[in-house]
Amino acid sequence: MTLEERITRIETALGLIDADARPDLSPALSVRAILADVSYHMGLSAADVVGRSRRSALTRARQAVAWLARRHTDKSLTTIAHAIGQRDRTTIMHAITEAERRRDAGDPSFRLLTDRLAAQYRRRAMQ
């Protein structure tokens, strides 16, 4: 077996392991769809969410989109960043960290929103 064939075999195996480890990934789910869902549920326009404003409601929405996209799509941080207004991947890493903090620190409305949408995406992935 050539080195190239071994690499292909390993990559295939890793892909299968990743798919089994994260069954909630939905190849049909896009970051834009998540953005639309979060915007709708938070009563915001998607254009405002991807804009430059640092208003609290908009940063919360971006954090929710980043957190959900990271867990329910196979998109990279860079891809998520571009979908949320041409931001940098490190900004998305920070948004995900802040989303985790909000969920753990007792922001009940944020946790409820992200839990509901996550459950919806899991159900969609199983269909």
Residue-averaged pLDDT, rounded? 84
Strand content: under 5%
Broad structural category: mainly alpha
List the uncertain runs: 16-23
Topology pattern, helix = H, strand = E: HHHHHHH
Query: End-to-end span in angstroms?
Result: 38 Å
User: In total, how many beta strands?
Assistant: 0
DSSP summary: helix tally: 7
The radius of gyration computed from the alpha-carbon positions, rounded to a whole number of angstroms, is: 16 Å
> What profile does the largest beta sheet have?
none
- Which range best describes the helical content: under 10%, 10-25%, 25-40%, 40-55%, 55-70% or over 70%? over 70%
Shape: globular
Characterization of the model:
The protein contains seven helices and no strands. The chain is an all-alpha fold and 127 residues long. The longest helix is centred in the first third of the chain and has 19 residues, at 3-21. The radius of gyration is 16 Å and the shape is globular. It starts with a helix and ends with a helix. 28% of the residues are buried.
